[in-house]
Amino acid sequence: MYESNWKGANISYWDERANMEYTYKKEKFYTITPIPYYYARRKIIIRKIKKIIKKNHFKYICDFGCGDGEYIKKIWEKELYIHGVDASPSMIDIAKKLQYDNVSYEVSEKGITEDAKFDMIYSSAVWAHIDDMHCQYLMHNIYEHLFNGGIFVICEQTAPFRYGGGVFFETNK
């Protein structure tokens, strides 16, 4: 068993982000990625995650780094059991406002602590925020919570932009 004394990412940063909401196409966002780009990319990721769930007849799903629960909201179906994990209490508070059957949440800085196994664990826009020293611990934590034959899907959103001085610049120019 791997051990870690990690105290988590900068939790106060994520709690502050929970108070920095932006509205685009009547939806709330908590991202610093340019929202039209994030919105389009998120639609692709959700479509792919739903396809994997359906193709494999998965029922037990975990959103690792669920933030505000928006991905859970988009993939939820009544026959699924979904568990959301996030290090930020404020983000989990937002996620809990989405009251669906068979959905649970936990605040955890050390990965999944729920005594459960999952068919699929996915994360989106999470790993760029975790330092190298703790990736191995968290990857092992995820592996320990997968059923035999379960899968882990990592989606990282990288925009063709860089941020500087309060402005986004296209990187391909």
Automatic annotation (TrEMBL):
Coiled coil: none annotated. It holds the Pfam family Methyltransf_23. InterPro entries: SAM-dependent_MTases_sf (IPR029063). It comes from the Bacteria. Transmembrane segments: none annotated. One of its GO terms (molecular function) is methyltransferase activity. GO terms for biological process: methylation. Keywords: Methyltransferase, Transferase. This is Class I SAM-dependent methyltransferase. It comes from Parablautia muri.
